[in-house]
Fold this protein.
Amino acid sequence: TLWYLFRDKLLPQNTKFIGYARTQLAIDEVREKSSKYIKVRTGEEEAFEDFWSHNVYLAGSYDKRRDFEFLNQEISKYEKSSIANRLFYLALPPSVFEEATTNIRNACTGLKGWTRIIIEKPFGRDATSSQKLSTHLAGLFKEEQIYRIDHYLGKEMVQNLMTLRFGNRIFAPAWNRENIASVLISFKEPFGTEGRGGYFDSFGIIR
């Protein structure tokens, strides 16, 4: 996705992509592992090489402030202009959200622009844990700094499609047999848990 955004010039030209995770990897290994998910069309080879020149990878833990201080030093290397914004995309196990966001707030807040976080994965496992995470984040960031993605919000809408249709009069003029020929809902995920059983046992499919 980042490559497509870069290829189509939908990102600022001086955007830098900095990967951070526990796994010890070189950027060449990151490139090799992601190659099967990336499509490069004929004539895009030069732009693709340029894209990878904007990528950096750093290994560290999620619960140690010192590692996030090293991350902050790495990010700061590329903030040459007077304005530099930081966007943290947290594709992490929910069990480390609180530690990671605390360390981002304390060690990686940008000094030259805004700092924002995207939380991607189930936002808690029930109402209580979701509220706990929201309260934690509210103590670290302003609401406009936080963007939440939850895998299951779409599922709830599909399960309640009939209620949604007849409970909201705004849909009545359009959601009827004169305007809709058919409704097709597809769910396809052709891979298993692949070593992530502990995660799914608490938050996802198995639970």
Q: What stands out?
A: The CA atoms of residues 72 and 108 lie 5 Å apart. The chain has a mean pLDDT of 89. The first helix runs from residue 2 to 7. The longest strand covers residues 115-120.
